[in-house]
Design the sequence.
């Protein structure tokens, strides 16, 4: 075991004991149980704000149509989000908690405000360039803001816009490489090119923050163990974000993953097209197999989840509705669910607890 102790991670006014952020995973993967237990163990638990209308079998959604949350107001349910944060707080107390909110969603600003009101200490946003992110947190000065980028150029644009319009800079930045699960910030072909791999992006971003305003740089995408963490800290990162490892712990909110992950093979994981407009990494099962076999459910936009989809136009092009299929996955529907994972998901060979995972990563 590595006996070198970690430095704590300071993000805005919040201090995380260990420099490890659990990545936000939706629908229903990182909600109260997962995020609460990760924060309890001294890392930063992150609640995904995607599809909260599905929480507890849509109990908190005010309107359900065809067994789906109706419109963005219900798909991103404020009532459910409040309940998720309340329950996570019962687990982790006053430890910092983050909210992950995709920039590509409908009603982004409203969901950011809802998360702040629910008690998020930190807002993390990817899937687009969040140039107006501070607009929605003006009444919450203690909430730290972290954009996710895939290049130094993207970060430079954020610095420029935020300084000009809001007279502030991000409190940290997450740099995500193309081995992560879910949506990628790269063109399909670029995900496989050497110059776009995380270890080749981090140094340029570290250099950029030293020019623009020194903030913590968080490395993300394909980070698996302590050796990987040490590697990126040596490249100038202040911490890491990890998501796929948390698919293999008992506290993962989407329990189907506990059965799926230990059986995965490397060839089961593939890059696919998404209605969100980015390539996405997923497990070749559920809806992906149904599409190949010609048994995929008919597409009809009910939840109106992301604006790039244009109310189902892009969904019909790629062959599935992402809201419906992630909702199915959260309920464990193995026939029609969409199951995301990072490129290293096949390396999960057994299910452990949040405490065991954090202890392993910090070298206890």
Sequence:
């Amino acid at each position: 075991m590595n006996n070198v102790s970690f430095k704590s991670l300071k993000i805005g006014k919040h201090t995380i004991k260990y420099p490890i952020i659990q990545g936000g995973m939706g629908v229903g993967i990182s909600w109260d149980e997962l995020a609460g237990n990760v924060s309890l163990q001294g890392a930063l638990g992150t609640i995904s704000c995607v599809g909260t209308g599905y929480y507890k079998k849509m109990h908190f959604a005010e309107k359900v149509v065809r067994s789906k949350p109706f419109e963005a107001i219900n798909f991103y349910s404020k009532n459910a989000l409040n309940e998720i944060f309340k329950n996570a707080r019962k687990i982790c107390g006053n430890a910092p908690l983050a909210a992950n909110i995709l920039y590509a969603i409908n009603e982004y600003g409203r969901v950011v405000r809802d998360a702040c009101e629910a008690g998020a200490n930190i807002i993390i946003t990817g899937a687009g360039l969040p140039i107006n992110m501070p607009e929605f947190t003006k009444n919450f000065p203690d909430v730290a803001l972290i954009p996710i980028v895939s290049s130094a150029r993207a970060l430079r644009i954020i610095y420029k816009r935020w300084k000009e319009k809001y007279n502030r800079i991000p409190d940290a930045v997450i740099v995500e490489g193309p081995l992560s699960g879910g949506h990628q910030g790269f063109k399909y072909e670029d995900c496989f090119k050497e110059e776009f791999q995380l270890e080749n992006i981090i140094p340029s971003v570290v250099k950029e923050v030293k020019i623009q305003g020194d903030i913590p740089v968080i490395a993300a995408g394909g980070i698996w163990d302590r050796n990987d963490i040490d590697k990126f800290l040596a490249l100038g990162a202040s911490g890491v974000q990890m998501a796929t490892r948390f698919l293999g712990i008992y506290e993962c909110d989407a329990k189907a993953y506990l059965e799926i992950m230990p059986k995965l093979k490397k060839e089961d994981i593939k890059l696919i097209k998404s209605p969100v407009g980015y390539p996405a990494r997923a497990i070749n099962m559920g809806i992906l197999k149904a599409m190949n076999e010609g048994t995929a459910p008919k597409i009809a936009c009910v939840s109106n989840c992301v604006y790039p989809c244009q109310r189902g136009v892009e969904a019909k092009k790629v062959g599935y509705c992402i809201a419906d299929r992630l909702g199915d996955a959260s309920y464990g529907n193995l026939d029609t669910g969409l199951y995301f994972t990072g490129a290293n998901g096949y390396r999960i060979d057994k299910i452990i607890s949040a405490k065991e995972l954090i202890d392993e990563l910090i070298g206890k």
Summary: The radius of gyration is 19 Å. The chain is about 35% helix and 15% strand.
